[in-house]
Amino acid sequence: MKIFLKKISLSSSPFYASAAVIFLLGVFMAIFWAFNEYIAYTESIENIRNSYNERYRNRVEEEVDKVIGFVEYRRSQANQRIESEIRDRVQSAYSIASHMYSRHKNEMTEAHLKNLVVEVLRPIRWSNGKGYYIAGGVGNGILDLYADDPFYEGKNSLSPEMGDLREKIREITAIINDKGAGTYRYNWTKPEAVGRVFPKMTFVKYFKPFDWFIGAGIYLDDLQKDLQEDILERIQNIRFSRDGEIIGFRFDGTVICHQDERFIGRSIKDFGDSAVDPYGEEMWRKGVSEDAEGVISYSVSMPGDNMKPIRKLAYVKAYKDWNWVFAAAMSMDDMEQAIENERQTYLRIAFKNTVLFVVLFIFAVSLLLLLAYFFSLRIKQGISLFTNFFRKAADEKIHIDHSQLAFTEFEDL
């Protein structure tokens, strides 16, 4: 099959060539401009995203650090308060023993006086019944008062029945001999929890008339439980940003702090879509990992808004002393809105630039095509002169007027 193409005249070829060159140049310029605009747009969006991500991360990290700092502060306050309290309790017991000794030393034997002081101190309790007194001889090692477990009373520190308490009595005696008073921290069993040990704090002071140490002891875990409950209650009321939230859970995943109390007691691992976005599982993994911290991004559906999902960023950090993990999370709506605003701005700019480009391109094309058309006419005029000359040359002697030739090639011809 033959394809016949219409032949282009010499005079019109500059016009068509110019049109083709201008069209291709316009296409290439449009592609180049569009590509550059797209690159600039994507870079701008990426910069916005990175900037907001950095801001969000700094904010949630700051909130988690505040929470952990608050926990540390309350713990230090509690330790100082506990130590101060048991010092005051020992001082009160010391004052009681001194008063009774000075009043009855001439009326009673030392054994009766000791027994009187012991029975006065025995029922005294504080801190919801968790604090109690102990007293014993420094020289003879006999424990005269152990209000929490009277089984050990009257026994010598060397007695096999004293068990591990022998070492504790020796260490308390060493504190008395060395400083006369001091704080002693150790682990000890509870009568109601045989076989388990708990942290305990005791303050002891020397009472010279009886060659005694008088001490006040308290199990720290009992107070720690109350302290933890108070801390969690305060953390639960923390609010930041527009919709920021603090989530707390144990290493086993049990939620211990959440703005919505219905979630407390559930497992953090159940949060999120287990198939699509199990962000609760990811929070737990970050918290119990070797680094004990991390950042995650996830989506949640908000009821009342056609279940429209929103993006959230969370920073997770463990508090290993209590096997707790805290996570601060906030929505990324501001970032999405900024990206949408930037997109709209770029669309407006791109539309204006496109209109300007089209107008300038049409103007330039019109001008160039007009010039190409003008030169095509001049070529056509020159060719017409030669055509007419050759037609008449066979019959007459004629000459071509060089002034009517627009191109030097025609003059040479």
Describe this structure in words.
With 413 residues, the protein is α+β, with helices and mostly antiparallel strands. Helix content is 51%, strand content 20%. The protein has a 5-stranded antiparallel beta sheet with strand order 2-1-5-4-3, with helices on both faces. The two termini are 40 Å apart. Mean pLDDT is 80; it is low at 1-5.
Order of helices and strands: HHEEHEEEHEEHEEEHH
Q: Which value, in Å, is the CA radius of gyration?
A: 47 Å
Share in helix = 40-55%
Q: What is the count of DSSP helices, taking H or I runs of 4+ residues?
A: 7
Strand content: 15-25%
Distance between the termini: 40 Å
What are the low-pLDDT stretches, counting only 5+ consecutive residues below 50? 1-5
What is the overall silhouette? Answer: rod-shaped
Question: Class by helix and strand content?
Answer: alpha+beta
Average pLDDT level:
80
Name the strands of the widest sheet in spatial order: 2-1-5-4-3
Largest sheet: 5 strands, antiparallel
**How many DSSP-defined strands?**
10
